[in-house]
Design goal:
Elements (H helix, E strand, L loop, with lengths): L5 H39 L4 H36 L15 H6 L7 H9 L6 H13 L21 H17 L1
Helix pairs in contact: 1-2
């Protein structure tokens, strides 16, 4: 499998770490703004309908920014994992190397431009199951014959035990008493 060298991965690691630190700071700043804004809203809430509506809209916008920034932080963490596993920069659709300039511009990307085009055209709609199958084929070889899958036998019926029979007799006697 084609991949970037360890030296190149270290360069990407530096870029991602810097971006990660900045994103974490921005995320904390946004969360602080949400907390402060929420406190300020509750003080005068209900006095002016238009002001309340505007405040709620601003709070929703801030919350959306928090969610986007949190997703970015998660994507950067995932990119660090790919570097650790030495698969960073390999397109998840085509399996080819992603262009270095693209990785420098969008360090969290997992697809090459070719892979994005293929997926957008529907020519190659890859699912997680497809990726797992392809990885398995790479490990085991594409010509590995899979033997027929055996179905487990149906569960056996539980035999009636003496305890159960006694319980049933007791229930029947109770029912007779009710009638």
């Amino acid at each position: 499998m084609e991949r970037y060298s360890d030296e190149e991965l270290e360069e990407f690691k530096v870029i991602i770490k810097d971006t990660y630190q900045q994103a974490k700071k921005e995320l904390q700043m946004l969360r602080d703004q949400v907390s402060e804004f929420s406190e300020n809203i509750t003080e005068g809430f209900g006095a002016d309908y238009t002001q309340d509506s505007s405040s709620v809209s601003q709070l929703e916008l801030l919350n959306e920014q928090v969610l986007r920034k949190r997703d970015q932080v998660q994507d950067l963490q995932n990119a660090m994992l790919r570097i650790k596993n030495k698969v960073y920069g390999v397109c998840s659709v085509t399996g080819k190397l992603i262009d270095r300039k693209r990785l420098e511009a969008v360090p969290t990307t997992t697809k090459s431009l070719e892979g994005m085009r293929l997926q957008a055209s529907g020519a190659m709609d890859v699912t997680a199951q497809d990726l797992a199958r392809m990885a398995s084929e790479r490990r085991e070889g594409p010509n590995k014959v899979i033997s027929k899958i055996k179905k487990p036998p149906p569960p056996k019926a539980k035999p009636v035990t003496k305890k159960r029979s006694r319980r049933r007799k007791a229930q029947e006697e109770d029912e007779d008493d009710l009638i």
